[in-house]
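Handoff note, outgoing to incoming analyst
You'll be picking up this chain. Sequence as last confirmed:
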Amino acid sequence: MSVESDVQSGAHAAAETAAPTPVGNPLLLGLTTFLPGGITLGLWFVGYLDTATLPGGMIPALSLCTGLFMLVATIWAGRLAMNTVAAVLGVFSAFWLSFSLLVVGLTSGWWGITQAAQVASVQRTYLLSFLIVFVIVTLATLRLPIVFTLGLLFVDATFALAFIGVSAGNTSLFPIAGITTFIFCAIFAYVLVDGMGQDLGGRSMPMGSPMVK
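Most recent structure output, in case you need it:
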């Protein structure tokens, strides 16, 4: 047997015995860091966090925790060619980061918007834009298990309630938006528990059949 054949045989055996490269799951990071921002938003909607007397009180959770680390998860998913995951995480990251800048700008006067009518106009435009985008994302991901669709539907409902509340000046809708926020947080927490359980060797939890096959 030649030296060349020995080398080739050894390389072939090493390839057969080498452990497969583990594949990461950026959705776990995305969901874990999504929850603090979502819970904070829900608490604000129901009046637990009074941003009128504590301007910018949501900023640390929304931007530094949720927005930033969901951006990290987005980049991670993109590098793994998990395109749909990257797109969904990316739009959520875009919302949290831009919402943080909106809150900071409106509470500090950065954008030169001081009158109540101007503030309401900016808020309506912002909420309507993201409502349309999240409805599109919901429809585009109907091939996912139904638990994801339910979570996104409650996200849509939250934006719709907030938009109507701001447009009509009806603050009584905000506590309802807080409830829908807590519901989609609970749904995505369920997905997170399932993903971590499987990552640690556990069995998958029921996710439901997709609405579109």
